[in-house]
Amino acid sequence: TSSDFSAGLNEDGTIANIDVSKSITLADYENLVVPMSEVQATDEEVDSDINSTLSANQGVSDDTSLEVADGDKVNIDYVGTIDGEEFEGGSATGYDLTIGSGNFIDGFEDQLIGKMPGETVQVKVTFPKDYQGKEVAGKDAVFETTINYIDETPKLTDKFVKEKLSDRYGYTTVKEMKKTIRDEIFKTNKTDYIWNHMIEIPDELINDRVDVLVNGLKAQLKASNYTLKDYLSAYGIEDETTLRDQYKSSCESTVKVFLIADAIAADKKISVTDEDV
After folding, report:
1. Is 0.70 surpassed by the pTM of this model?
2. Beta-carbon neighbour count of residue 143 at 10 Å?
3. Which of 2, 20, 22, 269 could share a disulfide with 263, CB 3.0–4.6 Å?
4. Are 164 and 53 in contact (CB under 8 A)?
5. pLDDT tens across 215-269, in order?
6. Cα–Cα distance for residue pair 7/212, rounded to 1 Å
């Protein structure tokens, strides 16, 4: 299987089988008014972006003066016993647990709050009577739990920004970081608004782009001695039809870009010459 990336396109790169001047009605794009209320960055959007950056820069701390708090992500080793005997599935090493997540039995996570890296805690819990593991359901258990370290989310300070983010993003202060993020979100929102208000996309134009993605995937899989069936099974996708449906959203965006570019090029009499190529 090979992928024809020019499928559905004319020789000059425009969308095939459609006269954009007759089929596409552009908005008055040179005078399109973008309402600020719909595109300006909100505090929530800025904070979300900042929190993602802070989370991505979490650092391991085994500082024995730190206390585990609700919401902390800790790395632990634990060995569970019932009546002094270890039981299947009750032990782990290097397990990452977020305190307050509720991933462990009621009371387990709470007993780690206030403890410190390097400390070993005898965590006592009772399995629910309806617990899925019948052999331990309703029984009292003790988990000998060692706190290896805490994953610390850094505090947003000028020092952190300058030391950790300046090389990659160019920020030097928190104020500058927030302004840059707000400006970038505004630009993205504005661009999205403009594209979304330019044209409506005819459904029949999307399939060629979907074909390009699906055939490209098949070619890539074949080169690695896999089949599309292997891929679908690995990612829990029901069938090729379901995969194509998942691709349609991004393909609609791609086709929209192509059509708008074609229409503006025709309107402004822009073309690509052989010399350009």
Report:
1. no
2. 21
3. 20
4. no
5. 999 999 999 999 999 999 999 999 999 999 999 878 888 888 888 888 888 888 8
6. 7
13: Cβ contacts below 8 Å, ≥ 6 apart: 6, 272
Q: Which of 79, 65, 77, 56 is nearest to 151 (CA)?
A: 56
Task: Return all residues near 276 (Cβ < 8 A) that are at least 6 apart.
Answer: none
- Tell me the sheet residues that pair with 80: 143
- Tell me how far the alpha carbon of residue 21 is from its chain's centroid: 38
- Residue 24 is given by DSSP the state -
Per DSSP (E only), the strands in the chain are: 59-61, 73-82, 85-98, 120-126, 140-152
Amino acid letter, 62: D
pLDDT at 3 over 70: no
Residues counted in the chain: 277
Tell me how far CA of residue 93 lies from CA of 89, 100, 137, 141, 221, in angstroms. Answer: 12, 20, 23, 18, 36
Check residue 33 and give its pLDDT: 85
CB 24 within 8 A of CB 14: no
pLDDT of residue 214: 92
Q: Nearest Cα to 73, choosing from 153, 10, 166? A: 153
Amino acid at 90: G
Q: Which of 259, 262, 190, 158 is nearest to 36 (CA)?
A: 190
Say how far apart CA 232 and CA 228 lie, in whole Å: 6
Condensed to tens digits (0 to 9), the pLDDT of residues 257-276 reads 888 888 888 888 888 888 99
Backbone dihedral angles phi then psi of residue 178, each to the nearest 5 degrees:
-65, -40
In this structure, what token pair is assigned to residue 246? 């998942």
